[in-house]
Amino acid sequence: xxxxxxxxxxxxxxxxxxxxxxxxxxxxxEHGWLITCARDAEDARAKMAYFTFDLMVLDxxxxxxTGVEFTKSLRSQGSTxxxxxxxAMSEGHERVQGLEVGADDxxxxxxxxxxxxxxxxxxxQRVARTKPRDPHIQFGAFRLNMTHKRLTLHEQAxxxxxxxxxxxxxxxxxxxxxxxxxxxxxxxxxxxxxxxPRSIDVLITRLxxxxxxxxxxxTIIHTVRGEGYALRG
Length: 233
Fold this sequence. Notes:
single chain; 8 helices; five-stranded parallel beta sheet; Rossmann fold; 2 domains; alpha/beta; Arc Repressor Mutant, subunit A
């Protein structure tokens, strides 16, 4: 198995094929990345409004707005997110157009998942060399190490389950910003399962018990009524 990337990166997979989204989410997740999926460009924009992504895997042929059109729109708005474009053998023209409007790399379907992992890894490394990233996020007296998925309080480790850590990382990446329950649900629900916003509330309660002085009166993870949750720094 390919070794995990040096930092915990968040990848957005955009494809209208539900089966392929599920397969990619599971396979890429096994390599140490956080994965969020979107079914089309509109869905991707909604998720990009809440989360910070380090890379996008984008299908060319999608309904309403193609991957080429979406890439052109993102670049015109100043987005520099690295994009790996997925194209079919018959989509050579679209592949060239994708590179012309700002895609960073492409892969032709059908492809070996291992090759996609290597292309993602290499692209992330290339970006990291030009824009170093601090692997630590500080909020209150807590310090979250994104490299090792480790949370400490006054240098003492705080044990979190995998799902609790995943939730905390997503909130920390949007520090001091509200993240909707629906967005958290989409990001944390395993592919193939039905989203259940109530499960996010339960997970928030569990996390609060571990990091709040008084979980009944939270000062770190705030509930924003009618909207979602926010981690305060």
